Amino acid sequence: MTSPSETYAAILGSTGRIDWKTLEPHFARGEVLVVGAALDLVAVAQALTADDADTVKGWMDAGQFGPISNEQAIDWSERHPDNLWAVVIRPWVLVQERA
Predict the structure, then answer these.
(1) What sign does the CA torsion over 78, 80, 81, 86 have?
(2) Which InterPro entries does UniProt cross-reference here (predicted)?
């Protein structure tokens, strides 16, 4: 069995910078989830892999995590931010814009 810290480390090793152009096809398929800046991208991915529904629901209810909005997609398309980080937790691509 994999420990939580091993899972965290494995997910951390799978994160990386990404540009909006690469994300656009995933957005079109409804696969992009946005992680708010106040959250830890890896911790959110870990909660999804652990099927921690209560925690994930709490973040969603607080507006800190969820599907990307059309407005956010337009913003990223126009600004081309260079500080987007992503990790794939199939079937989702979790994305966070870092400060």
Answers:
(1) positive
(2) DUF2288
Torsion, Cα of 59, 83, 92, 42 (10° steps): -60
pLDDT, tens digit (0-9, with 9 covering 90-100), for 17-52: 999 999 999 999 999 999 999 999 999 999 999 999
C-alpha 35/C-alpha 41 separation (Å) is 6
Measured CA to CA, the distance from residue 4 to residue 16 in angstroms comes to: 20
CA gap 96, 59 in Å, rounded: 14
Mean pLDDT of all residues belonging to the chain:
95
The pTM is what? 0.93
Q: What CA–CA distance (Å, rounded) separates 22 from 69?
A: 17
The answer to whether 46 and 10 have CB atoms below 8 angstroms apart is no
pLDDT at position 58, please?
98
Would you state the structure tokens that stand for residue 86, as one six-digit string?
Answer: 């992503």
